[in-house]
Amino acid sequence: MKKILALILALMMAFSCAAFADTLTMGTNAAFPPYEFYEEGDIVGIDAEIAAAICEILGCDLSIIDMDFDNLISAVSTGKIDFAMAGMTKTPEREENVNFSITYAIGVQSIIVPEGSPITSVDDLFAEGASYMIGVQQGTTGDIYCTDDFGEEHVSKFKTGADAVAALAAGKLDCVIIDNNPAKAFVEANEGLVLLDTDYSEEEYAIAIALENTALLENINNALATLIDNGTVESILAKYIPVEGNE
Ligand code: ARG
Fold first, then answer.
1. Helix 180-189 to helix 161-169 angle, to the nearest 10 degrees?
2. Which numbered atom of ligand 1 lies nearest the CA of 89?
3. In this model, does residue 179 exceed pLDDT 80?
4. Which of 57, 73, 71 is nearest to 24 (CA)?
5. Which of 129, 131, 148, 181 is the most exposed place for a label (fewest CB within 10 A)?
């Protein structure tokens, strides 16, 4: 009897937050609709909802902290936050510093231009003699790819994607390169901007967890797999991205 109780207890520990803490702290950068943004002072969106559903399965509370995107990985590895969920792309470089969960969504880098722009496709950016100023969010994959492809002198880096889009709307940039769903949201919110349907690069979004916290990685992966299997992730994605699928 005692043994069975001990086993049940051990199982409960392994599959609940009791193994870590009563509250899991998520770090994000909440200027990235529809994944994370402010609504009446609260951080809401796809990531906030999936994180809440994960915490419900794990039996713990969720607390969300907003920070600069390029501080998220170090906040995870130093233990300031338990995990980062920020429409964050799984990349080999980041995987040197954190573990990533299973993939829960797909993102594609897209180009935002002002109406009437000479840039009509990604090829125009690479064209012979092309010299454009591209806006990106600092530390994102868009930043990394553009800096690699076009050089520092052609890339203007902003704290948030929203800041980059504001600079574009003010005529200070030729285009902004950012993930497709935030791009759609920014274009809808700003008159005079157009989204080019050229896809620059396709990426997998996942949750970042400290390398040594393998128990949390396993728990989050189990919870996320359940939420993918039972359709919860799909319906959260569909709620925020009503049209063409879940990209
Ligand atoms: N997917 C891109 C990356 O991982 C951009 C993510 C930006 N996310 C945010 N919440 N601002 O680099």
1. 40
2. 4
3. yes
4. 57
5. 129
Options 3.90.76.10, 3.40.190.10, 3.40.50.360, 3.40.50.150; CATH for 107-202 is 3.40.190.10
Q: pLDDT (tens digit, 9 = 90+) per residue, 77-101?
A: 999 999 999 999 999 999 999 999 9
CB of 219 within 6 A of ligand 1: the answer is: no
CB 98 less than 6 A from any atom of ligand 1: no
CA distance 135 to 166: 10
From the CB of 88, is ligand 1 less than 6 Å away?
yes
Could you say which of 2.30.30.40, 3.30.390.10, 3.40.250.10, 3.40.190.10 is the CATH number of the domain covering 2-104+206-240? 3.40.190.10
> Which atom of ligand 1 is nearest to 203's Cα?
1
